[in-house]
Design a protein that fits this description.
Layout: H1 18-34, E1 39-41, H2 56-65, E2 72-74, H3 79-89, E3 102-105, E4 130-134, E5 144-147, E6 155-157, H4 166-173, E7 182-187, E8 190-194, E9 199-202
Parallel strand pairs: 2-3, 3-4, 4-7
Antiparallel strand pairs: 1-8, 5-6, 5-9, 7-8
Helix pairs in contact: 1-2
Keywords: Lyase
GO molecular function, one term: lyase activity
Protein name: Phosphonate C-P lyase system protein PhnH
């Protein structure tokens, strides 16, 4: 896939302190995935985002998790975000969701079926896709009850802006365990982790 030259004057800045900020964001992301349903807050470690509508939490996560060996798929064309990822991480951008290790979905209208993403294999379940999904809000929508590892009893979330079929498609992947797809719901600087081990029931 060919890329046009990066215009440095219009480039979205990355972390001010890459080592410290990457470690802090990684801890937040790990905690969110290990305690599904709880809201993690990524502290404002990025300069003001410009030229791109990407959620700060998603951009920080991509800067933290991606490198030259992690292909990324963007559900919506975003030249500024693509340039920033290429410059700051070296991550290759792919044209098909099935080729991605990480994916960012900014708009539910552009949501592909979850089966489009790589679930890993029995030998290498870790070679699956991780999705960063922008939602309009992390509360105020239809309640969803979560259960499974990392949850004491149950946890209830109510995100706004997910396509109605998300939970159905996610449940269809459950029999593939240990394969599957891990997700983060992002809104502003906040994030909720949804690992493949979490069972979700729409109330």
């Amino acid at each position: 896939m060919e890329h046009s030259p990066i215009a440095l004057s219009a480039l979205t800045p990355g972390f001010a302190d890459p080592v410290h900020d990457t470690q802090a964001v990684f801890r937040t992301l790990l905690d969110a995935l290990s305690r599904p349903g709880t809201i993690g807050v990524i502290h404002d470690v990025l300069p003001a985002l410009r030229n791109t509508p990407v959620e700060p939490a998603a951009f920080a996560a991509l800067l933290t998790l991606c490198d030259y060996a992690t292909p990324v798929w963007l559900a919506q064309p975003d030249t500024a975000l693509a340039s920033a990822l290429r410059f700051h991480t070296g991550a290759p951008l792919v044209e098909a969701p099935g080729a991605a290790a990480f994916a960012y979905v900014h708009d539910a209208d552009a949501w592909p079926p979850l089966e489009s993403f790589a679930p890993g294999s029995d030998e290498s379940p870790e070679q699956s896709a991780t999705l960063l999904i922008r939602v309009d809000a992390l509360s105020g929508g239809t309640p969803v009850t979560l259960s499974g590892p990392g949850i004491r009893g149950t946890e209830t979330i109510s995100p706004v802006g997910l396509p109605a079929r998300f939970w159905q498609e996610r449940a269809m992947l459950a029999p593939l365990f240990p394969c599957g797809i891990d997700c983060y719901l992002v809104c502003g600087l906040r994030v909720i982790g949804l690992p493949r081990t979490t069972e979700a029931k729409v109330n």
